[in-house]
Design goal:
Helix content is 39%, strand content 7%. It has 547 residues and is an alpha/beta fold. The chain has three domains: 2-63, no CATH class; 67-200, no CATH class; 253-508, SGNH hydrolase (Rossmann fold), CATH 3.40.50. A seven-stranded mixed β-sheet has the order 9-8-7-6-10-11-12, with helices on both faces. β3, α8 (214-237) and β4 (253-254) form a beta-alpha-beta unit.
Length: 547
């Protein structure tokens, strides 16, 4: 016994010393290298931070930053610099200054008496019936005041041209017409609609505001919001009959900027889940304060929304799916295999998605390895689907959300014309959520609420697949998942069907498909499977479904 005691003592001492060192490292780095990891000191020792960080190659002496991560940070810095110095921002600042700086003495704008080199002439706004305007031309006020008052924006006569009574009458008629029918090139709040939208046919402009008292404006806005929501729902529910080979492109629904948010016809609502009361609050947002709508331009509402609608599988021919093991399962076990492009791998998270080359699957090709940045640079896709989040449930919600936004910014920078789909994090089964304080549906739902704020209804959309796979309590039924977290192979058809029923079509280009090329790629993929399967076609048809 003494001999065994002597043998165990050095091992026990080594374990205790190692544990103490790891605890010290965790305490020292909790606000620095491990700041992104949630930790409950009551239920989790600080040494757990070291093990969590090691899984993401984050060590006590600092994170091991890969070349891909460094490149991603450079792209973000470049984007920030371009946005900060954009000509639009400078122009807005120049226009805002003379409008807001009025003198109390005469009620005129401070920029009215600028020198000729400024090239701007301000109207006298002492008369409330006149609109405040910057003419952009150096004209004498006495020659143009009446003309500017009656003439619609964008239709000015040359400076110095003498106007006749007939001209004045025509200008008045045009002004009256313009007040009744809004210029389709602008939204009702006076915000300019992007040029790419001006050419869209049959746009429905809603929420037009009329001049009047604040109560009148508020009432008109409320009526516009109700009409906008009703119109969007009508467009979503209408039955579209398509002839073979013909695609119906619905007109966009145009809302006012302050219409109160994106409707359910445009983005899915976040699917709630029952709370079992066991979630570790350290993994949630502080005081459950979900972020507000992001003011970043790519996440801001622009007033042009598109309704979700049903499509067929040809829609995914020019799509790229980015994700973790769940997305990899969608590729392996659904009918989307061979139809679209995937880059996905287990253990992928927003913290390591740029670090290494991942399995890349394109129609008609075998598996190759590419980084996400290379995949986004090599080809322009019409749609990009992003689904990462389950592996990050053990990190702080705020840090995850920040990294996810960075990922979307990079996707937008490298894929400027693509429709971006932010897919909500899929829930887990009820039994799994009840016994797990981290991989818990309460944790997932709160993060999904944050992800939903990133949608702008124009080119970034939130879709919540939990509506297709969860029960009334927001849990994945046990019969659909094999381990509580991942779907069975036969269950991925639900995800696939959900994607077909919740798609955005902005233009004919979203339906473009090189059909001959797609058929050839699909045939090549089937041939490759047969060549690598002993027994050929018969063996493939009789193969059991993997679960």
């Amino acid at each position: 016994m003494k001999k065994n005691h002597k043998l165990r003592s050095p091992l026990l001492i080594s374990i205790l010393v190692t544990g103490a060192v790891f605890c010290a490292a965790g305490i020292a780095g909790k606000n620095t290298v491990y700041a992104g990891y949630a930790q409950d000191p009551v239920f989790e020792p600080y040494l757990s931070l070291v093990f969590k960080g090691a899984a993401d190659e984050v060590y006590p002496w600092g994170a091991k930053e890969s070349a891909g991560a460094q490149e991603a940070m450079q792209l973000l810095a470049q984007q920030s610099a371009e946005e900060a110095g954009s000509p639009e921002d400078k122009e807005a600042a120049e226009v805002k200054e003379p409008i807001n700086n009025k003198t109390a003495e005469n009620g005129k704008t401070a920029g009215e008496n600028k020198s000729a080199e400024d090239g701007e002439t301000e109207k006298d706004d002492s008369d409330p019936s006149k609109d405040e305007k910057i003419t952009g031309e150096n004209e004498p006020a006495e020659d143009t005041e009446a003309e500017e008052e009656n003439e619609p924006a964008g239709e000015k006569e040359p400076a110095g041209e003498k106007e006749t009574a007939e001209d004045i009458k025509q200008a008045e008629e045009k002004s009256e017409t313009a007040s009744q029918q809004k210029d389709p090139g602008n939204d009702s709040a006076g915000q300019q609609i992007p040029e790419s939208m001006e050419e869209l046919p049959d746009s429905v402009v809603l929420g037009e505001e009329e001049e009047g008292s604040p109560d009148t404006v508020q009432s008109a806005a409320a009526e516009a919001d109700a009409a906008a929501a009703a119109s969007a729902q009508e467009m979503k529910e209408q039955i579209i009959v398509e002839k073979p080979g013909e695609k119906h492109i619905p007109a966009p629904v145009v809302y006012t900027i302050d219409s109160g948010g994106i409707t359910e016809a445009v983005c899915n609502p976040v699917v709630p889940a029952i709370e079992y009361g066991n979630v570790n609050r350290g993994y949630l947002f502080p005081n459950s304060q979900i972020p507000e709508k992001d003011p970043d331009p790519i996440f801001a509402e622009n007033g042009i929304y598109y309704p979700l609608r049903e499509v067929d599988d040809s829609y995914f021919a020019d799509a790229l799916f980015i994700g973790d093991s769940r997305t990899q399962g969608l590729y392996l076990y659904s009918e989307m295999k061979g139809r679209t492009t995937f880059i996905a791998k287990e253990s992928v998270s927003v913290f390591n998605i740029f670090d290494k080359a991942l399995p890349f699957y394109a129609p008609g090709q075998g598996e190759v390895r590419k980084t996400v940045l290379d995949a986004l640079r090599e080809k322009q896709y019409r749609k990009v689907y992003v689904s990462v989040g389950v592996n990050e449930l053990g990190s702080a919600a705020a840090e995850y959300f920040t990294r996810f936004k960075d990922l979307i910014r990079i996707v937008r920078q490298l894929q400027p014309d693509a429709i971006i789909y932010v897919q909500g994090i899929m829930h887990v089964t009820g039994s799994y959520a009840q016994k797990n304080a981290v991989y818990n549906n309460t944790n997932i739902v709160e993060r999904n609420k944050a992800l939903a704020t990133l949608a702008n209804g124009h080119d970034i959309f939130y879709i919540d697949l939990n509506s297709a796979v969860c029960d009334a309590e927001g849990n994945i039924p046990a019969e659909l998942a094999y381990d509580g977290v991942h779907l069975k192979a036969s269950s991925y058809k639900l995800w696939h069907q959900f994607l077909r029923e919740n798609a955005i079509v902005r233009s004919e280009a979203d339906w473009q498909e090189p059909k001959a090329e797609a058929a050839a790629q699909e045939g090549a993929a089937e041939d490759a499977v047969l060549e690598n399967t002993p027994g050929g076609e018969e063996a493939v048809s009789q193969a059991p479904v993997a679960e």
